[in-house]
Protein: TetR family transcriptional regulator
Amino acid sequence: MARKTGSHSEITGPRVRAAAQRLFARDGFAAVSMRQIAAEVGVQAGALYLYTPDKQALLFDLLKAHMDDVLSHWAAEPKGGGPQDALEAFVRFHIRFSLTRAEAVFLSYMELRNLTPEHFARIEALRRAYEDQLEAILAEGQVAGVFAVPDTKLATMAIIAMLTGVNTWYREGGRLSRGRVEQIYQDMVRRAVRA
Structure:
């Protein structure tokens, strides 16, 4: 379908995605209608279909964009000279990245159940690609004799769950700065895997 004359896809498209993310995170995917998203953006409900085929595609696009961002930003992150440096970099990156994208992180965990099987498989593959980065760091540390974990996959899941949990309690301007939280979590993770 062609855009209407005078529409601004480079402005309205991102506004549609931002409104959907905000509403899905606040009310849940199933409870939000396309009409609500349209009202939030200030367009007619039918206009949304110029930017997305349906609500399911919109959710998938939000989750995929988030995982693409995670992977591309992690790929660009300096990782130091060995597994200990790489683990510290991963911990600090995950906390820093997650805290600046709380809604996207929330959706990526809570709304997976609302994806079609095909969409779920694609997002799950991206999540595995990210998890594999941490597991490779742990495996390298095992080989080097600096980490000792009974199962690298389980340790990976536990560490990521712990790091992502910061989003549930951290508040900007609270007792601890982001930098201090990163340091404390980095120390806890290092102690948990130390040989």
